[in-house]
Protein 1
Amino acid sequence: MEANIHFPDPSKVREELIQKYPTKVAKKRSKSIIVNDPDLIPEVQANVRTVPGIITQRGCSYAGCKGVVLGPTRDIVNIVHGPIGCSFYAWLTRRNQTRPETLEDANYIPYCFSTDMQEENVVFGGEKKLKVAIQEAYDLFHPKSIAIFSTCPVGLIGDDVHAASKEMREKFGDCNVFGFSCEGYRGVSQSAGHHIANNGVFKHMVGRNNTPNEGKFKINLLGEYNIGGDAFEIERIFEKVGLTLISSFSGNSTVGQIENAHIADLNVILCHRSINYMGDMMETKYGIPWMKVNFVGADSSAKSLRKIAEYFGDEELKARVEEVIAEEMPRVKAIIEEILPRTTGKTAMLFVGGSRAHHYQDLFTELGMTTVAAGYEFAHRDDYEGRDVLPKIKVDADSKNIEELKVVPDPELYNPRKTEAELAELKEKGLEINGYSGMMKQMTKKSLVVDDLSHYESEKLIEIYKPDIFCAGIKEKYVVQKMGVPLKQLHSYDYGGPYTGFVGATNFYKDIDRMVNNPVWKLIKAPWEKAGNGKSGGIEASYVTQ
Ligand code: CFM
């Protein structure tokens, strides 16, 4: 599909983006800046180290492990072993919400636990201090579980968080203490931390609780972290449809639910990047297939529900899904029809994380808008090109750094939920099991795909394309807005959300309508756009001209 809007020549844009770089850097960056062709799916360089000196959007491995995957589980005490600075972002900045069932239920999300390492601990070792911290957390809260997260100095000085955790676990007897070697430098981005977190959760949590559940259609929701209440809306829909949510990884979740996850009959994956390892490992060990879904977008939500119903193959469930869609859609349609004339034909750019740059394109499509350029901060080639590319991905030294768990079928709990013949039949019906076709297949021809976008490149893209909206995070927000382009934060959602499901879609339509049609952006002139000192254009610092 070719978009119905005018694109600048994307090959020229690509040249312009790398023009200023030294030759070696230009060569490297050019492999990550790709003109899309959904039919051919060109190769994108991804998940490689950022060139030092380039201002990247990326975070670190500790952020991916502690903040992203484990952070949203409410009744686990997450202790950051490191200097206090690493804990700044450990305290609610991601807007992951949670809803304990009663006021008495444990909820440690509002707390921030750190060992507050000092120079003395870096020189003489921090294990002693860590054990004191674990003991203190245990005495104060008596939690079901305590997890330890290693920051950079911990790996550098060689503190053994696993040994300390084991010692304390055995000492307590009624508290599952385990550690993560997720030092910030472990990989090229937070993506390494996701993998480390998946391994730890799989090893230390999943499979510990065998409580049966009578639900007819038991599923786990993987890769949904309840930012701005997203998981609440999905839970509402699941309940309405009659699906039993056993566990969520990890928005609005509890330790007990995750420990019980292996009893589900299907894993649905929203954010492929952060949790696909878990889907694969649970399939091998317990025989639970996984399926990629997307609850961002009203049409995508309807499609995902239909896919789930098809998987279970139950006529009653299928009928109920249709009823729910028929109930939910009129409200969505009424709102989008009113907004559509104001948003149609506008353009968006999305540079976010490892999955939202893809998922949110569905909402923009529903708004009649075109995504002219998009990219992930830290995703891998399979998130761009689809999982078919997996065998071709070169495993480099940085990836080898992360443990690949050797998973085998569980002698007692392995139970393939579908036979080979049933899986083949589902595939026949167009249902992709254990598959993901990535972002590029869905993007228009000649749109631009940029991995690990640099700050410089983002400014250039805005200058060239003048998009109606730019989607990224807080680090980009005010620079972009000073250029006269509204920025929607797709990490924290600014103050908005939920954006998933049917209610979420309408929230998003309204928020984007307000942003792209606000006349204030047209009134902004960046300082360098104003005439001054006999010249117009060009950046002029005021202390030079005055
Ligand atoms: Fe998955 Fe996420 Fe994302 Fe992500 Fe993230 Fe996030 Fe994200 Mo920020 S898990 S990859 S590491 S969807 S915190 S909830 S918004 S970068 S696109």
Protein 2
Amino acid sequence: MSRSPLDVLSETFGYRSFRDGQEVLIENILNGRDVLGVMPTGAGKSLCYQLPALIMGGVAVVVSPLISLMKDQVDSLKQNGVRAAAINSAMDWDEVTDVLDAVRRGSVSLLYVAPERFDASEAFGAFLSSVDVRLFVVDEAHCVSQWGHDFRPSYLGLPAAVGSLPKRPVVAAFTATATPKVRDDIVLHLGLTDPFVLTTGFDRPNLFFSVMQMNSKEKDKFILRHVQKNAAASGIVYCSTRKAVDATRDFLRTKGVPAVRYHAGLDDAERRASQEAFIYDRAPVIVATNAFGMGIDKSNVRYVIHRNMPGSIDNYYQEAGRAGRDGLQSDCVLLFAPGDVATQRFLIDQNENQDDRQSANRRLQAMIDYCNTGSCLRAEMLRYFGETPDYSCGSCGNCAGDSGLTDVTVEAKKILSCVYRMAEKSGGLSFGKSTLVQVMMAEPSERSEKYGFDGISTWGLLKDCRRGEVQTMVDSLIAAKYLSVSDDEYRTLSFTPKTRPFLRGDEKFFARLTKKAAPVEREERTKRVRKQEAPSNSDTAMFEHLRKLRREMAAEQGVPPYLIFPDSTLYGMCATKPSTEAMLLEVPGVGTTKLERYGGRFLEAIRDFLEHS
Ligand code: ADP
Ligand code: MG
């Protein structure tokens, strides 16, 4: 009799219930059907194939693009007493042979391999034909698509590898990349047969998103304060250039924060050392370019701060999404300065292909809109990914109302009228942001002279405002879709279907002028309130106590601390304060293997803490 999925879930993985989507994917795999699971980072995709692999027997082959990902998964499975192994290019022949022997003996349930294993050596294909492969898993399956960001040609060879096996295994593919194009590519290029496709929503409810506009000095101060306030937590600070990485890291160091850095300009040794220090909880903060992150499965990243605005929401969501894999409340803060736009435009202009530039500009505009919107950030992001959220989340910087939004309804209407007057005066032409701002500020220019803008009624209507503020108001109108920007290089502004109703109506309009502007009173418009999972203050000390023990035990074994137990499990212990093995087993994340290995020491630590506090 094989065990039921729920039994395996609790005995082996220590969890009581499935997360969204897991159960149905597992059921389909167990019924022999190919599946494609599209779920956001941290949703728990691994479990969807690891668990059926254990029930199906034989060996499951898992294709994974990075050695670090494989290692993390194998170590994590071993912690739970699962027989998992990997073969990769960093191993010597003897090591590989040992693993293959173990597979042949039937003592490996999950075998992780890189996709190149299938093209480099036909011997591996032949080897697989000689063992009992029942499940073939393709993780990070978007790598098969040229539309994705991490295309890997070797993924295209996987269907042939599957086809050459004596008996076709169930094929299961997983990715966090949402676009329909990528999804179709996966089904096609991986040769999935009548797959069960599941796409869960892209929302990450435990992430708190916020945007703040500030200059470089203020960014330094903000980052330092945030890092110090969360001294016990792990965080990533992303910068858009190597220079900014170095400067930010140095700044934190001079203030006594042992931050490490990571970018493509460093030698391998420093990069590896930085990454390890961060993953093993020795350095609390890593300051990095976007070169850092792919293949990092560290589950207890509590915050991701972007010092600069990235070039697209796709990139932003992926980078910010490295926070809170364990499902605990985490912060994603985007620090924005208008100069960030110039940096991104410069990068785009390096591209020689006009179509590429155009689509990059469109993605950039969506990112700029995100920075300038006064409405729900979560909803704005989900809409970008094609969802249709009809709520304000109640738990982002804009919904929670601490984002320095100012009521600029009157100014906004003046700006829109000006767009109208300029078109009227010029015989129907549209103009870009800088001309518009010049007219609002009554700044003479060749163009204004040519078209006689200094004679229109809106000339200089905002000349008492600061120039930067007027620019921000225009950006906010674009973000709110009251103005649209042309796709060409001129980026001219024109009305949208929303513009006239706004001009006639009495809807208010908010912009994020400076971070100092007093927050406005906002009407209650939250439809969904999310519960905060953070621990109470009294538990924080206990958490620190257990965290210390976890770090010691991790060091003894040479594995990252979050593989011993994730943060969520430690919080679970703080909440229930178990005094017996049976109670400990009730804590999510404690399965039978970990209970056996670590239960004694954690129970002792809990007892010890309660006696001495
Ligand atoms: P993904 O690959 O989708 O980004 P992972 O498979 O790495 O996510 O899982 C993220 C975290 O969620 C891991 O720490 C994992 O142990 C945890 N997890 C997975 N399934 C469950 C569950 N049913 N209950 C609680 N935690 C879970
Ligand atoms: Mg994963």
